[in-house]
Amino acid sequence: MIDKVYKDKEDRRQFFTHNQIMFAAVNKENKFVFFSDSWLKCLKLKPEELRDINFTLLIHPDDLERSLDAYDFYKETGKFAIKMFHNRYRRSDGTYASIQWFGGEHDEELELSLTSAFELPADYEPFNWRV
Description:
There is one protein chain. The protein is built from 5 helices and 5 strands; from the N terminus they run H-H-E-E-H-H-H-E-E-E. The protein is α+β, with helices and mostly antiparallel strands. The chain has one domain: Beta-Lactamase, CATH 3.30.450.20. Strands 2-1-5-4-3 form a 5-stranded antiparallel sheet. A hairpin with a 5-residue loop joins strand 3 and strand 4 (96-107). The longest helix has 14 residues, at 64-77. Residues 1-6 have low confidence and may be disordered.
């Protein structure tokens, strides 16, 4: 679909490079196969570091169970369990970024989960929600 919106590859690259929204495609091994530059900025990682790690290893331990429950539901239904889902991902310096997930699609044929998210401000304090 994006091919129809943007005329050439440079236009598409610019869209992902300069967008603050964190777009990603994750394979069935839970590894990032595509990600926008905003992921690298948020997590302070190099492209090869993000590509080589199972994303579950980046999730804060307190968020892991509910994140995996939400992700399983998402893969089964193609929808997030709740409209807006929040969890924390570990940065390369050991601190955590608060991530707000707000859209995506799971493609069974390609065996990819396509997602969009953004980083929340450092002083963000989520309310206590459950999946």
